[in-house]
Design a protein that fits this description.
The chain is of the alpha/beta class and 444 residues long. 34% of the residues lie in helices and 15% in strands. The strands form two sheets. The chain has a seven-stranded parallel beta sheet, sandwiched between helices. Strands 10-11-9-12-13-8-14 form a seven-stranded parallel beta sheet, with helices on both faces. Helix 3 packs across helix 4, helix 6 crosses helix 8 and helix 14 packs across helix 15. Bound molecules: adenosine monophosphate.
Length: 444
């Protein structure tokens, strides 16, 4: 499938070539022909799926090919977004896609002076990206008319409702021409979104794309909760108990990698490590030996492990959870490849609860928890679930019942979490924040 076969015109294809887009994403494959055919759309797609191009490309094509020249203070297509950051971002994408088309585009949002926006709108714009509050202000001050409006896009509709824009949306809806094309994108479909869709959409085509963040279901994943200071000891215990043969282990920091490798080697275990501080040749050698099964345990940071392709890797262990939730997907994607079954075990301590919560929210699943006998944590890991909420504050746990108090000394050990700053990760396009930032403030 190419963008050309989806029916996009040459000026758009050239823009996509400049941007390096080669293949349409699933949401684009479904949305582009439908929008070009004039259908309304109800799309379950979240950020990262390529949804912006999914609606913007056909929209721009329709604007370029059909309809009158835009009149003063008018707008022909409107993209509503929840925040000013998103307005800027979507507008920037639109600007790039429209590079070779004779169309005017603009973005308006609150928190900045309204006058320059009013001036800019005087001549009219073909495509306007807006937050709902500022759009209404402009409309009420007669800076905007909707009589030429042919397409409305509601982007991140669920977030618009979460941010309390439902009244504004209702008022905008009343001001729009009844005959128009409407495209609604939302990551989730609550009853409120369905009501909104019922009101605003006309016989919509429903499309749903599975988020790229869902891990392969061939990977069995679970968490073993443990105190931070006992992670290395637990790792060795699990390794011996499970008779692990070939394991890729992820640690958060370079020091963490070195310390775990040293520890394992000290116990006579065939281990090696790779991280960004090591010369490329050394990393490659370690990797080649791991692939050839000459090394049993390879400990890596996220940066060093990116792009590894190891066939039939049976097990990935997250010695530390990643700082960025999306890295979890990359990590466990190293196992269970091409339909093979794999396992991913995460050793999680109490101060990683926010990272765990972010991973569960991203992967839309609550990870099964286990405790290993004699390793029950003294610092309980608070409950989490896929809603992204950390359910309760940690309770003071009961003392473990073991006679040794569960503390076996395996020698001097530096925990990875205590080591230097985490190795910077190669950032995917956009990330889900690992730490809960609390309810979002509405930005008018
Ligand atoms: P979105 O989900 O629309 O926020 O897009 C996520 C990122 O993917 C953006 O940085 C886009 O530039 C990029 N993107 C969208 N579609 C494609 C594609 N077909 N090929 C490559 N990158 C893309």
């Amino acid at each position: 499938m190419t963008f050309a076969t989806l029916g996009l015109i040459e000026p758009l294809l050239r823009a996509l070539e400049t941007l390096g887009y080669q293949t349409p994403t699933p949401v684009q494959t479904q949305a582009i022909p439908a929008v070009l055919a004039g259908r309304d759309l109800m799309a379950a797609a979240q950020t990262g799926t390529g949804k912006t191009a999914g609606f913007a490309l056909p929209l721009l094509q329709l604007l370029a090919m059909e309809g009158p020249k835009v009149s003063a203070n008018s707008v022909r297509a409107l993209i509503l977004v929840p925040t000013r950051e998103l307005a800027e971002q979507v507008h920037e994408a639109v600007r790039q896609y429209a590079e070779n088309l004779p169309l005017s585009t603009y973005a308006v949002y609150g928190g900045v002076s309204i006058n320059p926006q009013m001036m800019k709108l005087r001549k009219g714009v073909d495509l306007l990206v807006a937050t709902p509050g500022r759009l209404l202000d402009l409309f009420r001050q007669n800076a905007l008319k909707f009589n030429q409006l042919q397409t409305l896009v509601l982007d991140e509709a669920d977030r618009m409702l979460d941010l309390g824009f439902s009244e504004e949306l209702g008022n905008i809806y009343k001001a729009l021409p009844k005959k128009r094309q409407t495209l609604l994108f939302s990551a989730t479909f609550s009853d409120a979104i369905r009501t909104l869709a019922g009101q605003m959409l006309n016989d919509p085509l429903s499309i749903e794309v599975s988020p790229r963040n869902v891990a392969a279901n061939t990977v069995k994943q679970w968490v073993v909760t443990v105190d931070k200071k006992r992670k290395s000891e637990l790792f060795v215990h699990l390794m011996r108990k499970g008779k692990w043969k070939q394991v890729l282990v992820f640690a958060k920091t370079r020091n963490g990698v070195d310390a775990l490798v040293e520890k394992l080697q000290g116990l006579g275990i065939n281990a090696d490590g790779i991280h960004g501080d090591k010369p490329q040749a050394t990393r490659q050698r370690a990797l080649d030996r791991f692939k050839a099964s000459e090394v049993q345990i390879l400990v890596a940071t996220d940066v060093a492990a990116r792009g590894l392709d190891i066939e039939d890797l049976p097990l990935v262990v997250n010695f530390d959870l990643p700082i960025v939730a999306e890295d979890y997907i990359h990590r466990i994607g190293r196992t269970g490849r091409a339909g093979a079954t794999g396992q991913a075990i995460s050793l999680v301590c109490a101060d990683e609860v926010n990272q765990l919560s972010a991973i569960e929210m991203l992967t839309r699943q609550t990870l099964t928890r286990q405790m290993e006998q004699d390793f029950e944590p003294e610092h309980r890991v608070p409950d989490t679930d896929a809603s992204g909420q950390v359910v309760k504050k940690p309770k003071k746990p009961k003392k473990p019942k073991t006679s040794s108090g569960g503390k076996r000394n395996l020698g001097k050990w530096v925990e990875s979490g205590d080591a230097s700053a985490p190795e910077p990760s190669i950032k995917p396009v956009r990330k889900v924040p690992v730490f809960n930032t609390g309810p979002r403030k509405r930005k008018p």
